[in-house]
Amino acid sequence: MEQLRGSFFIGGDWVEPASDRRFTLVDASSGEAIGTVPEGVEADIDAAVAAARKALHASGWADASPAERASVIERFLAALTARSEDIARSVSTQNGMPIAVSRALEGGFSLGLGQYYVDLARSLGQPDIRPSQMGRETRVEHSPIGVVAAIIPWNFPVTLAISKIA
């Protein structure tokens, strides 16, 4: 059985997992094992979060405007679009989703969802002034709060990842 991936991409480098535990990936249409990948454990998540926190400040991402962040996410979505057929086939192989559904939802809808968040981020640069109950105005400001670790379910992995990334 092929080892599909042996390490995690953390802090800009491929690093060995903290554990020898591995997941076996199974072709949902045949039941055949198609490869293995490392199973992330708490220490791997801690390392990824620590690296992300460091990068958040060192890269300037923490100070990036919503429009600047939107531009980065838009480039990410363009890269996903270029690989959408490969992504759809991988999702269908792993979870048994019909390829037409995978193309439509994981390849199409997820990219539209990402674009929705790009457009939303661009609108965050505009003042959000709302009337208050006391006849005055309230200014609402949206600020990023930092790094999170998110676990993505198996059923719609790309769509659910985009909803967290974007």
TrEMBL record:
Pfam families: Aldedh (PF00171). Residues 14-166 form the Aldehyde dehydrogenase domain. Transmembrane segments: none annotated. SUPFAM superfamilies: ALDH-like. The keyword Oxidoreductase applies. GO terms for molecular function: oxidoreductase activity. Keywords: Oxidoreductase. InterPro entries: Ald_DH/histidinol_DH, Ald_DH_N, Aldehyde_DH_dom. Belongs to the aldehyde dehydrogenase family. This is Aldehyde dehydrogenase.
